[in-house]
Amino acid sequence: MKSRLGHFVLAAATIACLLPAALYAQDIKVWDHTIAFHGFLTQGGIYTAGNNWLTMDTNNGSGAFTEMGLNVSTKLTDKIRISAQVYDHNIGQLGQWHPTLDFATLDYKFKPWLSIRFGKVKTTLGLFTDTQDLDFLHAFALMPQGIYPIDVRDADIAHLGGDIYGTISLGHKMGSLSYTGWGGHRYDSIYSGYPYFLQARGTQELRYDGTQYGGDLRWNTPLKGLLVGASRLDEDLSGYGIRLGAPNHEQSKKDFTDQFYGEFTYRNLTIDAEIKRFYRDHLIRNLTAEDSSNVHSWYVSGSYRLNKWVQLGSYYSHYTITSTFLQITDTSTPGGHDYDKVVTGRVDINRFLNFKLEGHFLDGYGFGPYPNGFYPQQNPVFAPSTKALVLLSSFNF
Amino acid sequence: MKRIRLFLIAVLFVAFALVSVHAASVKVIANASVAATAVSADELRSVFLEEKDALADGSRVEAVIEKGGPAHEAFLKEYLDKSDSALQSYYRSLVFTGKGAMPKTVGSDAEMVAYVAKTKGAIGYVGGDASAEGVKTLQVK
pTM (2 decimals)? Predict the structure, then answer.
């Protein structure tokens, strides 16, 4: 544990050393255009009692939790802006230092109520799908895993296609309505949680992708600080790989996500709540078998900023899964659910550097075809509950 | 009865004075190229949250913020209803999702006035007592 968490301390110290140089190298001027550079680096460490978590050997303490991104953007005209971001991560067995294009978009604003963006676009789904990989934006070290599972987040974080979006003022002090409609193609990393889950069942996934389309509607209500909204995502996915030495194919028949959410902010207090249903019916094992997976999850979180340095927070995340193929039918058993009680403290050294310390008290391990952090590769025998301590440091400029 | 009336008058006077002081704590300024002479609070919020880049009269605008200080705090409280850290997180979420950019940030009221005066479409704020020479002051409806 000492040497692994030593990596965390070393990386955190490196962040602190690199910080002063990085802070001022943000913008360059090329002809009339300002090109802005931004970036982030996150280093975490996790220690657990119970199950190993998130594909790491966390029962012995693991610092194999690194994320980074570099971002460049410029405004070409008053109406056109382009931006791109490269992202890389290594979290246990996930990511494995294979950089990806997080997004690369061209955004054109016709009117406040009508704009488009296309390219590789971050998906607007619920409150935080598009920002779930940006730890420094959130009070919590780990987002509620029932809705934002870190191990499969590349599944819906972006699409190659386009969005149409805008904000409409409702007048008569009725607030405003923001909408986003999107369509495109999704490409999953083979270093993600679902391929890793399949590995344990004898399948080496080589490709997993498909079309997706959906929309999001959110209402900034007349009650100051209250936002409510709903999102829907439909997908048609195919997977190709090798199973027991032979080609393997899987194909979704029906795949959708519904998400409803609300956020209330009052001064330094933020309260979030979301509820999500994910349903996937797909043909597996060269289309000779079928699985219907059904995930229901929700969370309620609250955070309060005491002053500009310290923020405290807590959430309860509720996740249940059933699967016809894996014969998970009883969500009251530890394998059918994952209930997570969390307390966290965040310290902001300045605008660019923060540290978080977070405790998780997990009941269940929710192991199914939509993985939620626990895998048999690290847990030959699952424990019914897990306690975890998460330490995270992030810097961004 | 007379005492109660006097007390109520005193309360009203103090409340009025407090409101006046509060309202005077920050003023919204814009470059001379901005045609509008007044903006609504909702419009102002939308501009500073990058939901809009034009005012109702069609004037194209670009928000400028201060790094900190009393005018910044007053503006956030009055019009954006966000703390500075929440606002910074909001802008960063736009930047790191490709959905927006960090606004131009200046260090003081004097810098704000100087920048807004020379930048077409710029819209910002300064303390109620700060000089607004070379820029126009917008009334907030």
Answer: 0.88
